[in-house]
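Whiteboard transcription, Tuesday session. T.W. wrote the structure tokens on the left side:
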């Protein structure tokens, strides 16, 4: 049984054609509040402003005046709920905004949420007026602080190498449910047709009058494969069956099914939701990552959600281009570095057959530049940091637990595991993931090649390596010799563990050419990737290669960055660099 409850509150946002939805994407009123005067001046009841901002998208690049603004900003919109909905619960649903958000409807505080990359929904029943316009106000606080995840100090002093965009960067809507509704739906499958459904139902009437009708359809809701009825006894219902003639989900053939669940009370359907599921198994055995019992090799990228003007919002059209570019290059996998991506992003991964490492926002690459070395260990012990890191892992799994594409969770990126308390935190997070679901594969991306006894808690060792860029710069012979040597050492240290190289890459400014290849040229990047991959694919213990990065992305300003991190094999506007074609050839050979 799947037991959360340490941190996750509210219901899971489930797909539904039944629940009425009022989309709130569009132009909202906007106001920055650098001195945090808004609440004292009643802005949460509604505020005046000449400025507009588009939702979803980060605020920064929508107006050059806001570009480097990290701090408090206010958003406001109006919505109407017709009287025909009286008796229903209106939920305000935010798919991702941050860093810290407080929400009011008609001046009444609904709740708050910390963390930019996870959905949350708040019950607005006490606040809304049916048959009238309602005012929704959101206060976003995007200040960087050491007790926030990921940590930072100011716009250009962050522990993470991506731009600290702020705002409402994913969809917002009001969804209406009946008072009896399906709160959570969790599906476990295997490639031999296991279908285990765990449902949490929230009922205000006597549960005995209610039953669940569970149906399995093909991807297009055209053919019904399975149906079962179950009385709602208690709030949690578990149904388990083994289905015949099911096609497994895999990158080569990503077969999806729709699992529909109807809640019927007194002969009336009162709720209906669905999840797109796949039948697949994932495990690590004898040094192999096995998908549906067969060894799989991960080929792909670390990515970012980053695009000009929209910031942390990747519009659907850009996502489609990204996935076609990834397909064309021969990739079958990516990591959601360094935070959970949007539902649409994962929808496409499910649909097009990508194996995803879902990463939490606990990204600490540059934490050593922000606090003195002797304080890092103390920082990792801070109960606030620890509980936030845990909450974010739990929320991430809660939201994405039913995704066939998600085969592994990464609990952190480049945590300073040389320090004892940081090591214990990564251990705690990994064990926590396993306690939520023992079938889940767990890892963390490490820049240290010696992960000590943390090898006992991860299924796969994930390494980020930059010989030939941050060390041995410009000298690929030396870099590759070191890579070979170091990897053999890692393998000898952990002979029973599959290893994935989750990051390796070199910056290239598109259009910058050089013979012989020198750093920052397209030729150097191509050569770097070619020589790495030629080595990596020959090592039997390496089970995956993720090039850093798929596309160039914006970062804080630093002498190491030319506005963007240029390690993309495509530019920020998604045009291939020379390395793209080299990688396409290499991926085809593995
Ligand atoms: C890393 C980090 C990643 C950076 C990358 C780089 O190790 O994990 O966030 O962007 O290196 O390009 O420096």
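and on the right, the sequence the group agreed on:
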């Amino acid at each position: 049984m799947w037991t959360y409850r340490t941190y996750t509150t509210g219901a899971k946002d489930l797909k539904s054609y039944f629940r009425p939805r009022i989309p709130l994407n569009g132009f909202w009123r906007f106001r920055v509040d650098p001195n945090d005067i808004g609440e004292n001046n009643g802005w949460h009841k509604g505020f005046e402003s000449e400025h507009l901002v588009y939702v979803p998208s980060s605020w920064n690049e929508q107006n050059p005046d806001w570009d480097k603004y990290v701090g408090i900003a206010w958003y406001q919109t109006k919505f109407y709920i017709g009287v025909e909905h009286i008796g229903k619960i209106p939920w305000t649903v935010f798919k991702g905004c941050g860093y810290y958000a407080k929400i009011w409807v008609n001046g009444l505080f609904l709740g708050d949420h910390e963390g930019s990359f996870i959905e949350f929904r708040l019950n607005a029943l006490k606040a809304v007026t049916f048959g009238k316009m309602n005012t929704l106000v959101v206060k976003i606080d995007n200040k960087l602080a050491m007790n926030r995840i990921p940590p930072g100090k100011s716009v250009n002093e962050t522990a993470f190498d991506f731009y600290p965009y702020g705002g409402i960067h994913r969809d917002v809507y009001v969804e209406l449910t009946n008072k009896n509704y399906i709160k959570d739906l969790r599906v476990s499958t295997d490639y031999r047709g296991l279908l285990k459904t765990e449902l949490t139902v929230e009922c205000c009437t006597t549960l005995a009058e209610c039953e669940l009708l569970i149906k399995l359809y093909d991807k297009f809701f055209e053919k019904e494969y399975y149906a079962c009825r179950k009385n709602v006894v208690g709030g949690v219902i578990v149904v388990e069956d083994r289905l015949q003639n099911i096609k497994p989900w895999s990158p080569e053939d990503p077969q999806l099914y729709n699992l529909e669940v109807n809640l019927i009370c007194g002969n009336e359907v009162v709720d209906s939701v669905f999840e797109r599921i796949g039948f697949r198994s994932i495990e690590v055995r004898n040094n192999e990552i096995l998908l549906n019992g067969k060894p799989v090799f991960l080929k792909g990228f670390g990515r970012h959600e980053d695009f000009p003007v929209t910031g942390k919002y990747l519009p659907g059209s850009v996502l489609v281009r990204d996935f076609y570019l990834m397909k064309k290059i021969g990739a079958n996998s990516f990591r959601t570095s360094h935070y959970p991506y949007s539902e649409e992003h994962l929808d496409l991964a499910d649909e097009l057959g990508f194996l995803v490492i879902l990463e939490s926002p606990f990204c600490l690459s540059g934490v050593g530049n922000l606090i003195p070395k002797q304080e890092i260990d103390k920082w990792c012990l801070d109960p606030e940091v620890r509980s936030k890191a845990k909450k974010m892992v739990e929320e991430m799994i809660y939201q994405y637990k039913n995704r066939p594409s998600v085969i592994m969770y990464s609990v952190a990126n480049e945590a300073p595991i040389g320090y004892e308390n940081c090591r214990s935190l990564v251990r705690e997070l990994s064990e926590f993931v396993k306690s939520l679901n023992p079938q889940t594969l767990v890892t963390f991306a490490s820049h240290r090649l010696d992960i000590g006894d943390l090898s006992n808690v991860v299924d796969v060792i994930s390494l980020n390596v930059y010989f030939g860029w941050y060390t041995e710069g410009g000298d690929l012979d030396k870099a590759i010799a070191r890579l070979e040597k170091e990897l053999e050492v890692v393998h000898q240290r952990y002979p029973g563990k599959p290893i994935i190289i989750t990051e390796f890459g070199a910056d290239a400014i598109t259009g910058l050419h050089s013979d012989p290849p020198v750093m920052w040229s397209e030729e150097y990047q191509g050569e770097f990737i070619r020589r790495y991959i030629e080595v990596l694919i020959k090592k039997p213990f390496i089970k995956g290669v993720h090039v850093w990065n798929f596309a160039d992305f914006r970062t804080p300003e630093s002498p190491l960055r030319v506005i963007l991190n240029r390690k993309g094999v495509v530019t920020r506007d998604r045009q291939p660099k020379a390395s793209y074609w080299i990688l396409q050839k290499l991926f085809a050979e593995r």
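Someone added at the bottom: The first strand starts at residue 21 and ends at 23.
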